Amino acid sequence: xxxxxxxxxxxxxxxxxxxxxxxxxxxxxxxxxxxxxxxxxxxxxxxxxxxxxxxxxxxxxxxxxxxxxxxxxxxxxxxxxxxxxxxxxxxxxxxxxxxxxxxxxxxxxxxxxxxxxxxxxxxxxxxxxxxxxxxxxxxxxxxxxxxxxxxxxxxxxxxxxxxxxxxxxxxxxxxxxxx
Length: 179
What we know:
Layout: E1 5-16, H1 23-29, E2 33-34, E3 43-47, E4 52-56, E5 61-67, H2 70-85, E6 98-107, H3 114-120, E7 124-125, E8 134-137, E9 144-147, E10 152-158, H4 161-178
Antiparallel strand pairs: 1-5, 1-6, 2-3, 3-4, 4-5, 6-10, 7-8, 8-9, 9-10
């Protein structure tokens, strides 16, 4: 991956505890929750360690965000299971976790001429008056990049570390061809 260093900064994933959850009861028992069913049907649970947040629905479906590794995702889900046990909900399955999105940031070790890239790349949007980065949808992948002139990047849209690394390699090949 050339000189660059890119690391995962957020993983969004979903799972099901396969049990109905009494959200009002959960909100009454746990201090780290917010539940306002008139505004949104899910309960927000903030977890200190690992530092993550989750949306929990009465169906037992969960969306977790904030973890920086799959290990931390699992720890976060385990923490949710411990928390719902406090209201008498025993989760007996090991929930299957589905990664919905990974966000990574870092640098690719080369300066970028965003004006030139905006003209030469298909699937690119660049409006420097509104935002200093170029948005680039990498063809043949689900990856979308924010590219900055100093070589810093943000990647979103991948669902595994393998796909993330492949997308970054493809991006660097595309950028080197244009340079």
